[in-house]
């Protein structure tokens, strides 16, 4: 437990003091202002839920990919990766703890977007289904941590992981229904989009902000958690496999 707490404290301090890591916390209020301005200019209050949720999900996903995904890569750059892998403490446990702390910090985007809506536009976000919203948000955080774990494992496995990191974000956000519901996209994208947990998260969270009753909450929450845990399990297994390989070959600094 002390190991997890120490790893979490380290990552929290790193995120909050490293200016580059705070870019998403700076960008999210600006995106929220742009979306809300577009909604007001076009007189489309029916799109308010979209304007509030899109910058939140973008911020959470971006921090997961850019910070959590680079946990291992930054350690390699600082020259501490070899020491961590050689240490008796489980390397995967350390990585997972740091990923979780980063994901928790990314949820500050919810507060930021609410503050922009209230202070900048005089809009108090209405949440008719607060329990569903809270459950959906926590499930999204769990699934995001799972995806970040897989990305961290890819950075141990190969240096070309940055290519995936840079090129996949917006396609994933689009197919995940962050900007518009998946059912508004071409039909051929639906099977692909439903494999991305964000498509379930965005639909569930948007419904929680609407007045209509939210249906199938347990099933949809289970889909978010199931996809996230499946991804996280894949990342955990890949991380363990790669760490064993680099220990055997002594190539941790060369992969």
TrEMBL record:
Signal peptide: none annotated. Keywords: Membrane, Transmembrane, Transmembrane helix. It is found in: Membrane. It is a multi-pass membrane protein. The keyword Electron transport does not apply. The keyword Hydrolase does not apply. The chain crosses the membrane at residues 21-41, 47-67, 99-124, 130-156, 217-239. Residues 56-208 form the ABC-2 type transporter transmembrane domain. InterPro entries: ABC2_TM (IPR013525), Nod_factor_ABC_transporter (IPR051784). This is ABC transporter permease.
